[in-house]
């Protein structure tokens, strides 16, 4: 019985697929003004158009993440990539045949294609589960940090490359190029990705127990329990799943929110030119993603809870500085500190998933990745409301939202450590 792949190949496939998955949503924000002009969109309609890919990209993480526990990650991951190809391909075709004067009346269809495009970033929770089953617990932090860190580099890289491409080749050409890029990535993922040994043995017809035994002989440590519904229900019953959701809401949801917010902050509050504002935003995005990789290794050595606590302290301090400071130099230092805290905390959170929810990793990854990423939608309106209340200075005061969230999360981490200490004490007494 031939079994394919190894942990290195498994990690390479998911990381590459997640990176390519961002291609389908990279264009919506920077090119939104083109849709507004062509279809005479209201601010609300334009906001919905920009947000719709991220909506599917967050909420679909929940069911697709749970699906990993029944079939392995390759099938749900590939389906999400194909849906993303359909979405971006549909928008590209509409632009090629109807832009600029023929788009009126096509807004609902564009929203549908936008929703499908977001499926590419919903692959995150699938990749988390798929990667987790490949690695032993003592290497989870580094493996998941590498997967998420490299994959999350895409928004920052695209924010630098896209303006240059648009200036040379134009609006519609960019959509064709990004569509081909996504299609290539989907094909490469289909060829390279492979599920962990247990799922391969199950597809060969082995019983669950026999498949576990054979996979364990090859080094696999983690195994699922139940189906999609079971995975979601089992993980939802564990209260620590919701503690991790709260942490990830602040760190990854905050990462998404600030990637969208910083161009406004640098442009309006610090009065930067658009290109400079985009560059400074890219620095935040790339740094937060890149530091996630060593963050996973640090979490392996020091423990996810302790690393998350230190990260939250960094987020609280950086947000406080940004809330009340105006100096560009100090603000930039605070942004790098904020990026460090968010990136390292993101790695630490998913280091804790297999620790607290070992029998429903996919389901937990779905809840955490999906509801956590929803922070990318919830936080910008809160910061916008603060701007409305305070005026120009509100662009700085809006960071108070992260001060509050960091303080709440420090208390949550304290409770996690306290409960863990109690559990360890009980085990020792037994």
UniProtKB/TrEMBL annotation:
> Domain of life here?
Bacteria
Major facilitator superfamily (MFS) profile domain: residues covered: 10-421
* Location(s) in or outside the cell: Membrane
Pfam families given in the database record: MFS_1
Report TM segments. 12-33, 45-64, 76-99, 105-129, 141-166, 172-198, 242-263, 275-295, 307-324, 330-353, 365-387, 399-417
Protein's UniProt keywords contain Ribosomal protein: no
User: What GO cellular component is one of the record's annotations?
Assistant: membrane
Record-linked SUPFAM superfamilies: MFS general substrate transporter (SSF103473)
Q: Name one GO biological process term.
A: nitrate assimilation
Any one GO MF annotation of this record: nitrate transmembrane transporter activity
Q: What is its main location?
A: membrane
Task: Specify the protein's topology with respect to the membrane.
Answer: Multi-pass membrane protein
Asked whether the keyword Transmembrane helix is assigned, the reply is yes
Q: Which UniProt keywords apply?
A: Membrane, Nitrate assimilation, Transmembrane, Transmembrane helix
What protein family is recorded?
Belongs to the major facilitator superfamily. Nitrate/nitrite porter (TC 2.A.1.8) family.
Q: What is this protein called?
A: MFS transporter, NNP family, nitrate/nitrite transporter
């Amino acid at each position: 019985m031939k079994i394919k792949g190894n942990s290195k190949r498994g990690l390479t496939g998911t990381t590459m697929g997640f990176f390519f998955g961002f291609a389908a949503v990279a264009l919506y924000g920077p090119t939104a003004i083109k849709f507004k002009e062509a279809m005479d969109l209201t601010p609300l309609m334009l906001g919905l158009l920009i947000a719709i890919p991220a909506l599917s990209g967050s909420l679909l993480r929940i069911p697709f993440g749970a699906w990993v526990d029944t079939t392995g990650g390759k099938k749900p991951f590939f389906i999400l990539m194909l849906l993303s190809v359909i979405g971006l391909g549909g928008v590209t075709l509409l632009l090629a045949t109807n832009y600029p004067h023929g788009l009126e009346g096509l807004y609902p269809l564009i929203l549908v294609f936008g929703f499908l495009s977001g499926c590419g970033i919903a692959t995150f929770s699938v990749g988390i589960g798929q990667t987790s089953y490949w690695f032993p617990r003592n290497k989870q932090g580094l493996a998941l940090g590498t997967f998420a860190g490299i994959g999350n580099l895409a928004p920052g890289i695209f924010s630098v490359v896209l303006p240059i491409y648009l200036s040379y080749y134009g609006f519609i050409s960019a959509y064709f190029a990004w569509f081909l890029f996504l299609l290539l990535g989907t094909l490469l993922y289909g060829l390279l990705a492979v599920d962990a040994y247990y799922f391969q043995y199950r597809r060969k017809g082995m019983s669950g127990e026999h498949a576990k035994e054979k996979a364990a002989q090859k080094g696999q440590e983690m195994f699922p329990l139940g189906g999609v519904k079971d995975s979601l229900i089992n993980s939802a019953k564990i209260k620590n799943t919701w503690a991790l959701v709260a942490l990830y809401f602040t760190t990854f949801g905050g990462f998404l929110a600030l990637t969208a917010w910083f161009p406004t902050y640098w442009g309006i509050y610090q009065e930067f030119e658009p290109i400079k504002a985009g560059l400074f935003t890219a620095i935040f995005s790339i740094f937060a993603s890149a530091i996630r990789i060593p963050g996973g290794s640090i979490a392996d050595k020091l423990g996810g809870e302790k690393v998350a606590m230190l990260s939250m302290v960094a987020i609280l301090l950086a947000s406080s500085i940004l809330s009340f400071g105006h100096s560009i130099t100090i603000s930039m230092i605070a942004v790098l500190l904020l990026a460090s805290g968010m990136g390292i905390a993101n790695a630490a959170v998913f280091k804790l998933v297999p620790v607290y929810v070992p029998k429903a990793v996919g389901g937990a990854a779905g809840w955490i990745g999906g509801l956590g990423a929803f922070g990318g939608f919830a936080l910008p309106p809160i910061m916008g409301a603060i701007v409305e209340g305070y005026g120009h200075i509100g662009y700085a005061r809006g960071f108070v939202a992260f001060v509050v969230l960091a303080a709440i999360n420090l208390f949550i981490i304290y409770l996690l450590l306290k409960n863990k200490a109690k559990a360890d004490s009980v085990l020792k007494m037994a």
